[in-house]
């Protein structure tokens, strides 16, 4: 039972906070559209140049009547940067702007390259703002399997982008923080998408904004965790760090993008983990017609 750990922000707070980062006239139009259409929660705002803003609600695309010209795209971009692009240049190089409270605005446009070095982006053509949410019991399935295996087995969650792997991890870390006896665990939150949305009373070692590979190695060497939670394995460096950690006796729950077990097994960056049989189970995540989580578990 969850007691002392609660959501830090409710649904309306998150939408309000994200829309506050937009120009005032855009914010007011969006709030009216959401109110008029009785929308309880927006999963994502998709903004494209020379097109109308689209809201993603329960995996459905809802087209608004807010048209964004090239000039308006630049205004939105500057607003997300609070008027200082330079202050966000490092994350812009990584394809996003951090708004706060675990919210990121993904951006794309024309690359600025000088002497082969990627310096940033100009002529912003698309912006995608995903709104984090807490879904109670989303982590039940994973937690039950972990508990049945005495928290000693490692699991790899996979799904297509946007299905809700990070949402599952949020609920899972709450449960781990309330497990008795305590399961020592570290949370590798490199993109600050898991923990900023939750309260500060998590009973865990939290690595914010660290490069994943480095954070996994530091947690393993310095914090003696029984388990590590890590979102989105995306490089060989991260895969090798995970393999070394598991080889030291640490169990791990990680996620990656793949739409099927077949696609998962062909991901080259995961080969170091498959070769050393790092994970006992692969768990595929989908949504049914009612937007409920569905799971498919395979043993490696």
Oligomeric organization of the protein chains: single chain
Number of domains: 2
Going by helix content, strand content and strand pairing, the class is: alpha/beta
Under CATH, the homologous superfamily of the largest domain reads P-loop containing nucleotide triphosphate hydrolases
Spatial order of the strands forming the largest sheet: 9-8-10-11-7-12-13
Strand content: 25-35%
Architecture of the largest domain in CATH? 3-Layer(aba) Sandwich
Radius of gyration: 20 Å
Helix segment count? 10
Short description:
The protein has 300 residues and is α/β, with parallel strands linked by helices. The chain is built from 10 helices and 13 strands.
Structural description of this entry:
- The protein is of the alpha/beta class and 300 residues long.
- The chain has two domains: 11-130, 2-Layer Sandwich (Beta-Lactamase), CATH 3.30.450; 140-299, Rossmann fold, CATH 3.40.50.300.
- Helix content is 31%, strand content 30%.
- The chain has ten helices and 13 strands.
- The strands form two sheets. A seven-stranded mixed β-sheet has the order 9-8-10-11-7-12-13, with helices on both faces. A six-stranded antiparallel β-sheet has the order 3-2-1-6-5-4.
- Strand 1 (44-48) and strand 2 form a beta hairpin.
- Helix 7 runs parallel beside helix 8 (236-247).
- The longest helix has 13 residues, at 24-36.
- It is globular.
- The relative contact order is 0.12.
């Amino acid at each position: 039972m969850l007691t002392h750990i609660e959501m830090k922000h409710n649904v309306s707070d998150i939408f309000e906070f994200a829309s506050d980062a937009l120009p005032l006239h855009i914010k007011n139009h969006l709030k009216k559209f959401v109110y008029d259409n009785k929308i309880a929660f927006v999963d994502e705002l998709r903004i494209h140049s020379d097109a109308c803003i689209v809201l993603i609600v329960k995996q459905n695309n809802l087209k608004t009547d807010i048209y964004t010209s090239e000039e308006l795209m630049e205004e939105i971009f500057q607003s997300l940067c609070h008027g200082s692009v330079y202050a966000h240049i490092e994350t812009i190089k990584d394809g996003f702007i951090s708004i706060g409270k675990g919210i990121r605005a993904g951006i794309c446009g024309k690359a600025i390259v000088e002497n082969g070095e990627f310096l940033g982006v100009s002529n912003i053509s698309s912006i995608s703002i995903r709104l984090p949410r807490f879904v109670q019991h989303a982590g039940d399935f994973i937690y039950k399997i972990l508990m049945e295996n005495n928290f000693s087995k490692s699991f790899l969650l996979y799904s297509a982008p946007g299905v809700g792997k990070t949402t599952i991890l949020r609920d899972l870390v709450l449960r781990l923080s309330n497990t008795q006896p305590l399961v020592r665990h570290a949370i590798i939150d490199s993109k600050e998408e898991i923990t900023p949305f939750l309260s500060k009373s998590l009973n865990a070692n939290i690595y914010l904004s660290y490069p994943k590979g480095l954070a996994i190695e530091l947690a393993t060497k310095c914090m003696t965790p029984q388990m590590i939670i890590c979102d989105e394995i995306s490089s060989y460096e991260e895969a090798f760090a995970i393999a070394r950690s598991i080889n030291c006796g640490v169990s791990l729950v990680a996620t990656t993008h793949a739409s099927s077990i077949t696609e998962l097994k062909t991901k080259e960056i995961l080969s170091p983990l498959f070769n050393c049989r790092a994970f006992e189970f692969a768990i595929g995540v989908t949504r049914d017609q009612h937007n409920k989580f569905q799971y498919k578990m395979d043993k490696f």
